[in-house]
Amino acid sequence: GDSVTQMEGPVTLSEEAFLTINCTYTATGYPSLFWYVQYPGEGLQLLLKATKADDKGSNKGFEATYRKETTSFHLEKGSVQVSDSAVYFCALRRGSGGSNYKLTFGKGTLLTVNP
Amino acid sequence: DGGITQSPKYLFRKEGQNVTLSCEQNLNHDAMYWYRQDPGQGLRLIYYSQIVNDFQKGDIAEGYSVSREKKESFPLTVTSAQKNPTAFYLCASSQSSDRGYGYTFGSGTRLTVV
Predict the structure, then answer these.
(1) Which of A13, A47, B62, B78 is the most exposed, fewest CB within 10 Å of its CB?
(2) Interface with B, mutate which of A38, A45, A89, A102 (most B CBs under 10 A)
(3) For position B40, what pLDDT does the model report?
(4) What confidence score (pLDDT) does residue A95 get?
(5) By CB neighbour count within 10 A (0-12 exposed, 13-18 middle, 19+ buried), where does A89 fall?
(6) How far is residue A21's CA from residue A109's CA, in Å, rounded to a whole number?
């Protein structure tokens, strides 16, 4: 079945440090890939997405590139801020129809950024 | 603005009680979902519905029930059969016709057994 594996947290960085959160996936076909962010006590918000190989999703300084050859979708940011402290979820969606309506989520990675 | 509204934000349940969590969306999305989130365990799917009057069990449906009588609404009932209901519950919806769409989430309901 489909699966998403994220690097285990927690990840603790100083402000302005470089961030990478690794995400790899297993799925048949050509899934779409997503990163969601969850701030404390809130629901998940879509951060960025990519729908085909070599696409780069970007938003709020975060980037991730869909790498089909390595089945990866690593999240990066060049300079993190305290306000980026949150839980980050990688997810995939395989297609439309039937059980493909469902997103498959990774377990989430807690990021803490210290001033 | 379109979105998903979950209510209440905090809910307290006594042992042996059933409680119902509300989820309403005005995005005209076909599919709706309920997830449970526990610390350190990520998201676990409880139930999902692709169309009105139809729903399927997810990975942890025991002790929960749902209904989908209207496209906009997908309430979740936590029954007394759910032995450990204290958790954060998230409702989501999606446009089911295109894999390029992700989910839109509500802001969650935190349920505590007292």
Answers:
(1) B62
(2) A102
(3) 73
(4) 65
(5) buried
(6) 8
Kindly list the distances between the CA atom of residue B107 and the CA atoms of A38, B10, B42, B75, B91, in Å, as whole numbers in the listed order.
Answer: 10, 11, 16, 15, 8
Is residue B21 within 8 Å of residue B13, measured between CB atoms?
no
Buried (b) or exposed (e) across A57-88, using 16+ Cβ within 10 A? beeeebbbbbbeeebbbbbebeebeeebbbbb
Chain A touched by B60 (CB under 8 Å) = no
CA–CA distance, B89 with B111 (Å, rounded to integer): 7
Residue A43: closest C-alpha in chain B? B107
DSSP readout, A15-45? Answer: TT--EEE-EEEE-SS--EEEEEEE-TTS-EE
Cross-chain residue pair A108–B42, CB shorter than 8 Å: yes
Asked whether A4 and A90 are in contact (CB, 8 A), the reply is: yes
